Each structure stands twice: as structure tokens, then as C-alpha cells.
Amino acid sequence: MTRAGGAARGTRIETDVLVLGSGIAGLTYAIKAARHGRVTVLTKKEDTEANTNYAQGGIAAVMDPSDSFAAHIADTLEAGAGLCDRRAVALLVESGPDRVRELIEYGVRFTYQRGEPGRLSLAREGGHSARRIVRADDLTGRAIERGLLDAAARASVKIHEHYFALDLWLDRSGPLPRCVGVLAVDRETGEDVAVSANVTFLATGGCGQVYRFTTNPGIATGDGIAMAFRAGAPVANLEFVQFHPTALYPVEPRPFLISEAVRGEGAILRDAEGRAFMAGYHPLADLAPRDVVARAIDAEMRRAGTDHVWLDTSPIAPDHFAERFPNILETCRSRGLDPPTAPLPVVPAAHYMCGGVVTDLDARTGVAGLLAAGEVACTGVHGANRLASNSLLEAVVFADRAARATPDMVATPRSGADPPPPPRRSGSPTDLDGLRRRIREILWTGAGIVRDDAGLAAAEAQLAELVPRVPTNPRTPEAAEVANLLLVGRLIVRSAILRKESRGLHFSRSHPDSDPTFLHDTIIRPCEGKEPLP
Ligand code: FAD
Ligand code: SIN
User: Fold this and answer.
1) Is the CB of 215 under 6 A from ligand 2?
2) Of the bound ligands, which one is closest to the alpha carbon of residue 53?
3) DSSP of 49-91
4) How far, in Å, CA of 123 to CA of 299, rounded?
5) Which one is the CATH code of 432-524: 1.20.58.100, 2.40.50.200, 3.90.180.10, 3.30.565.10?
6) Which stretch of DSSP H or E encloses residue 103?
7) Is residue 4 very low, low, confident or very high in pLDDT (cuts 50, 70, 90)?
8) Sign of dihedral through CA atoms 473, 476, 478, 481?
9) 56 in contact with ligand 1, CB cutoff 6 A
């Protein structure tokens, strides 16, 4: 680390490979890239604070002889409602078992069949035609995060916690801009940091925080999507936001997910009168696809004027519940709830972004020098809807692809240029908390579980009104997050407006049917130097 002089005051870090984010995608890539050079990871909070750490259900892969690649591919394509990229899906599924075995080699401790040490305990989730969910009790994400952090330490990966990436650093001296690192801020000292690298790997995760109610932790503010878009990378399919049906109510201040696996083990959704309502919506009742269940709960809450429904866990034997869901049991008890005897109040909440920064099969984005994988990316795997537990798999598979593309990129000479001077601090103070709340409310109301033309148009106008109030070129993490939430929120609404049909996760009352005219991705390309959105 050196002190930079001149216009670029602050700290300067030089590295071969720069990774933004310490979730499953960032760490998997970092461990593999360490074979090709020095790797530096920046992460905006503690190293464990990532969506990955909260994953419960597990990671999908064909690990049982009675299962097949063809079946996993078919299930993924079925969920994706016509929009999956078949090559990406085949790659995802066929490399899945190797990537899971690699996680085990890194030290991730999955759950095995009792009395059969070599046999993974595989769960089944909605939309999967076989038992193929590899899990670590109901704390799969935490086990993966810990295993990967240990493996990253062994691989001498340098992780800087509390370093917030503000924007990608672009070299504009050639015909096309090239990413040569990142401009960041050290949250503990407030100092500007410029990191220059031959390769930058974006693994900043999703954007659940753009919605008022979300299962995602506070880090999920869409920073990577916003940074890549500002740098010139196209984004796609941002209208496909997955709402998980069962977040514990109330969702705020700390969201907690009641895994779909709880319904998989027999729990039943009921309204305030105790009526089991899912059979009226889908032949699979409580095990219907996630989007159908979320919309059904939304409809029931509107009909009854309630702010949650109930998850009756009493069909699950107490001993089995305690063994299968130790973390859910402990958290519920800490909130004064007593499953499986007493029902749990639950509500749908924004959970997963299927779209993101457009990447090819080697994780390359539309900006030279910039790779991306994990929830920030749109690889084509999920199409219009994600199959449960395919996202952790997607992250490891495409992080591995990116690592294979890395040696050539590391060989590219690094820019010797000084980073641009940090932007001036904006003059007038802004109510950042108020703006953040307003953006999240607008998205929840106008671009939530069920949409329509009027609501989307209103949301677009309301978000546009906020643009002059949000700092341009923010220098603090708090201001940058609000700017990123606003940009990502506007991109989600624009994408939803462009899709005048219903497909997968995007359901519009104004266009309730699917329309083959829209059997394509919704791609938004930034226009350099111009306001990108109307
Ligand atoms: P993340 O794990 O979110 O990591 C992003 C990283 O980027 C974090 O370290 C963050 O701090 C960092 N970062 C972000 N912005 C910046 C910035 N500006 N500067 C520096 N660092 C930054 N998927 C499954 O497949 N199976 C499941 O069972 C499952 N359960 C889930 C349960 C919950 C409650 C949630 C929220 C999600 C679940 N998912 C599940 C989805 C899955 O966890 C995520 O899609 C996946 O973990 C994303 O991994 P990632 O590495 O892309 O991003
Ligand atoms: C869950 O455990 O219900 C979440 C699984 C997922 O998001 O894939």
C-alpha cells in the first residue's frame, strides 16, 4: 500500500486481481485467482456480511445416482419460463457436482446422512423433480462463508474489510473504456483509496434493499449493478425480482427467512381464520412455485386487509423440526415464537434479483477488464424465474469460469495513470435516510409482487422527481448507497415497463398473459454522457 500524491490524495493499492465482495462468488473466485497473481478483496462491512451468509435451504446439484443432469436442466428451464440461455443452464448443471466437491475440499461442512458419513443428506425444494439440495442443516450459507474465508486465508488472499467501492476506475485513453481498478473509501478512516488492478471481478451481490420489505441484509444495495451501468456495461432482466413467500413478520428491523424447506417438510399456509388457502391457487398447494405462493399470499392479505398470514408448522413433529431447522427454531424462540406448536406470522419479501450485469459464459461484462459473477450478474441461467437453490450454484460455477479467463487478463499491462481526483463533497446536506425510505416505498408500491401500467408509470415519475435530490458523484458510502438504490430502482421500473406481458416473476394486471413477442431479454444499455433513463 502506498500514499498517492498530486490530485489523487489518499491510499493507493496495486494488485494483480481485484475482487469486490466477500460472498460466495467473490471468495470462490479469489481462491482460484490466487494461483495467477496477488489477489485483493474489498468488502464494505465485515468479511462475513453478505447474502451468502444468510442462505438457509442449500445449493442445488446432481449428487445422487437416481438424479440426472437432464432432469436438473429441465427443472431450471421450466422455472425460467422461456428466457433461460440453454448453454448457460447446461454449464451450470453439468459443472455443479465438481463445484460442490470443490467446496467440500475447501472445508465447507455439509450435512451427511446419519450413519453414512460419505453420503450427503439431500433435500428437495419447490420446482425440483429430485432430492438435490446439498445443505448444512438450515445454515448452509454460514457454513459456505466460513469454509471459503478459511480457504481464502490459506491461499494468501488479502481481504480489506470496511472498504466501500464507490465507482469503477476507467482508463479512457483507448477507443473503449477499460476498467483498471476501483475508487473506494476506507470507512474506518474516511480516507480515499484507489486500487489499480489488471483484472477487476465484480461480486457485490443483489439489491433487495431497494424494496421496503426484503429478506436481504443491509449490504444488498445494488452497488455493483449501478457501478457497472455507470461504467458502460449493459444490464438485463431487472424486472424479474423474486419475492420469497415466507419472511418472518414483522420483517423490520432484522429480516429473517422461514425457509421454503419448512413447507417442504409439511407446513401449511393459513389465513387469519385458519383456512388453508393454497389449494385454491395451485394443484401443488403449499408447494406451488415460489412466485405463485407469493402472489397468493399478497391476494389473501389484500382480501382480508391483514398485514401477514400464518404458517402452520404443527404437521412437523417437534423432534424433527428441532433437528432439521435448529437455526429457525432458535431465532423464532428468541422472538417469542414457539414452532412447531404455535403458527408463525409470515409475509412475502423481496429476495433475489434474477437480472443484473450482462455477462458471457466466461463472466466477461460489456466493459474490458471487468468480470462479474454471482447475484450481481445476469448469466442467462435464471431467465424469468430462479429455481430454488440455483443461485449459490450459479455463483460458484461462473466464478470458476471467470478464474479460467483470468491468466490472460493478468498478463495485460496495468495502467500507470493516476486515479481521477475524488469528486468534491456536495454542498447542501441531504436527508439520506428519508430518501432511502422513499425509494424503497416507491418500489414496493409500484413495482412489487403484482404490477400494472399505472403503478409503474407513477413509480417511474416519483423516482425521477428524486433525481435532483440525490447527490451526484457521492463520496460517502451512505450517499453512494442512496444514489445506487435510486439508479437500480429506476432500472427495475424501466425494465418492468418495457415488458408488456406477464412472464415468470413479472406479473402485470394490465397484461396478465404471456406474449411470444416478449420472448427475449430486457436489455438496457447506458448511453455515455447522457441521462440514461427518461
Ligand atoms: P453476496 O453473498 O451478497 O456478497 C456480496 C458482497 O459484496 C458482500 O461481501 C458485500 O459486503 C459486498 N459489497 C456490496 N457492495 C459493495 C461495495 N460497494 N463495496 C465493497 N463491497 C461491497 N440461494 C441459494 O441458492 N440457496 C439458498 O438456500 C438461499 N437462501 C437464501 C436465504 C436468504 C435469507 C437470502 C437473502 C438469500 C438466499 N439465497 C439462496 C440467495 C443467495 O444467498 C445469494 O444469491 C448469493 O449468496 C449471492 O452471492 P454473491 O457472492 O453474489 O453476493
Ligand atoms: C429458502 O431456503 O427458502 C431459500 C432458498 C433459495 O432462495 O434458493
Assistant:
1) no
2) 1
3) -SGGGG--S-EE---STT--HHHHHHHHHHHTTT---HHHHHH
4) 29
5) 1.20.58.100
6) helix 86-106
7) very low
8) positive
9) yes
What pLDDT is stored for residue 380 in this prediction? Answer: 98
Mutation to probe ligand 1, out of 22, 52, 394 (largest number of atoms < 8 A from CB) = 52
> 46, 376, 391: which to mutate for ligand 1, most atoms within 8 A of CB?
391
Instruction: Judge whether residue 328 has pLDDT over 50.
Output: yes
CA of 235 to the centre of ligand 1 (A): 18
Could you list the active site residues? 290
Q: How confident is the model at residue 531 (pLDDT cuts 50, 70, 90)?
A: low
Give the tens place of pLDDT for each residue, 139-178: 999 999 999 999 999 999 999 999 999 999 999 988 889 9
3-state secondary structure (DSSP) of residue 317: coil
Class (C level, CATH) for 2-239+352-378+396-410: alpha beta
- 308 C-alpha to ligand 2 centroid (Å): 19
pLDDT tens string 430-444: 899 999 999 999 999
Look at residue 425 and tell me whether its pLDDT is greater than 70.
no
Is it the case that residue 534 has pLDDT exceeding 60?
Answer: no
Residue 360 has pLDDT above 70, yes or no: yes
Q: What is the pTM of this model?
A: 0.96
Query: How is domain 246-348 classified at the CATH fold level?
Result: Flavocytochrome C3; Chain A, domain 1 (3.90.700)
- 419 CB under 6 A from ligand 1? no
Q: How far is CA 158 from CA 5, 203, 333, 399, 411, in A?
A: 24, 16, 38, 18, 20
317-356 core/surface letters (b: 16 or more CB in 10 A; e: else): eeeebeebbeebbebbeeeebebbeebbbbbbbbbbbbbb
In this structure, the strands spanning 377-378 and 356-358 are: parallel
